[in-house]
Amino acid sequence: MLKPQSTSTRELVSLDGLWKFGLVTDDLEQTRPWTKPLDSGLEAPVPASYNDIFVDPKIHDHVGWVVYQRAIRVPRGWTQDKYFIRVEAATHEGRVYVNDKLVAEHIGGYTPFDAEVTQLVKPGEEFRVTIAVNNELTNTTIPPGFIVTTETGARKQTYLHDFYNYAGLARSVWLYNVPDQHINDVTITTDLKESTGIIKYSIDTTSSSGKITVQILDEDQKTVANASGLKGEIKVASAKLWNPGAAYLYQFKVSLHDSNGTVLDEYTVATGIRKVEVRGNKFLINNKPFYFTGFGRHEDTAVRGKGHDQAYMVHDFALMDWIGANSFRTSHYPYAEEVMDYADRKGIVVIDETPAVGLNLAISSGLFGGIKRETWSEETCNDQTREANAQAIRELVARDKNHPCVVMWSIANEPASSEEGAREYFEPLVKVAREADPTRPVCFINVMFAKYNDCLISDLFDVLCLNRYYGWYISQGDLAAAEVQLEEELRGWEKKYNKPMLMTEYGADTLAGLHSLHNLPWSEEFQVQYYDMYHRVFDRIESMTGEQVWNFADFQTAIQIFRIDGNKKGIFTRDRKPKAIAHELRKRWTKIRAQGNQVTPKANL
């Protein structure tokens, strides 16, 4: 599925702005709100999560369907074209109705879907579009959850991921056209042989007789290579490479011609020539060892929730540059496509993750005092859950496969990988990921309860990605004991697997402005000492290939007794003010960056 773009043969119309909005408090199919104009008196902005926009708690806590509605006019010049509505994300299930007709439905809250409306509305005509969005989670959704009915009769959504279940149309909505004969899809992979860049491509079109030509343009818009055909390999001599912190992007321009040479359709993909490889216990980018520095993050801001915000995006990348970060993980779901495009341009390395978070019932049992349940069973995470997980992998790869910033796929965060049934669940998913993209490494994010001696699936993956909280959830406040525990475990992983190890989460909740002479937990001083301890250990472990702290900024969570207005593990506050640790990380990471992002733990930082 190609992202809509404006070319000589394509146009797109933004549908962002205020939409009529309403809750569906009864059965959606019985209520049928798309058959009539909404009269709730409410309007909601798109893109934005709806939960924090209004002051009514019934909206904030709503479980079930909501509807967005507005009038749209098809441009009258689209008479020879096909045209679609594209929803970039509907969390967690979306349906699109044109007037009274259902034209598309999609399950999965963070990947896009299209609805063709060509046969329903003529160019120049106005029509009513209604988008219904459902935030319900069950044991067969990704992420999973369950719904309970309280003593008052209210429905309450329970979920196992530790960030707020924001819902709605958090990303843009578009109306776009394509020619009747058009380019369906483009797949690009790159490689490097000495100084020659290799671009392999595959193109899918709706035309049975059209001719494909390809131009490779450099950043000065000069043609550096040409090709033709639906598949091919292009060599770029003395290629300028996409490097971390020094991105160079070529334009891969595809043209579809008819038998007379007339251009029927055009599409351009920005591509960076780079090579990603795991070799022994090293992660290599362009044949050089790469050391990750950066963050686990969230799409989370006040009022807008998970709504994409260009101003915050640019500011967040500026903060990452200031602090010396070279990477982030899209924890715990695919981010907006604009974020991926921006990372391409800025040379930020990305670990791209599916929404498979919360696949671990032991966490809820242990931390929240619940009844212990098996994670992998017919009643909990089952074959249907796995298929939803597989679909999430396919859609993630289909959307982001051409981004040079993406160097690895993460197919799940903190699953119960030491429980019986984990291998049966994950082995088919690793196969799905490798079939979808054979060129990038695949990982999952290992939870602290599944160590090297009892994790059942780590051998299936290319990189060991570990989330560890010694000194916080384990041995809280005792950093001396935590240092011993952390080093002992990391050496155990290294000895058993000899794979690259990346710490994808480590952190301590910290209340900005709280200070302590004794480095007490929650103080800014403790957060500094906590990270110093981890970095001492990292620098003693040969196989450590990076550090992504948890979290970039404080973020909202569900109401919990140990969460005061959200998770406070941020290096920055929710409104992006630095805590003391930000300055300490800046010293470490800018030094690593100055050495080409290739420093190893032996470098004695």
UniProtKB/TrEMBL annotation:
Glycosyl hydrolases family 2 sugar binding domain location: 14-179
Origin: domain of life: Eukaryota
Annotated ranges, domain Glycoside hydrolase family 2 immunoglobulin-like beta-sandwich: 182-274
UniProt keyword annotations, A-Z: Glycosidase, Hydrolase
One Pfam family from the record: Glyco_hydro_2_C
Record-level GO BP terms: carbohydrate metabolic process; glucuronoside catabolic process
UniProt-listed Enzyme Commission number(s): 3.2.1.31
Enzyme category, top tier: hydrolase
Domain Glycoside hydrolase family 2 catalytic as annotated: residue spans: 276-593
UniProt-recorded Gene Ontology molecular function terms: beta-glucuronidase activity; carbohydrate binding
Annotated family: Belongs to the glycosyl hydrolase 2 family.
NCBIfam families for the chain: PRK10150.1 (NF007538)
UniProt protein name: Beta-glucuronidase
Protein species of origin: Polyplosphaeria fusca
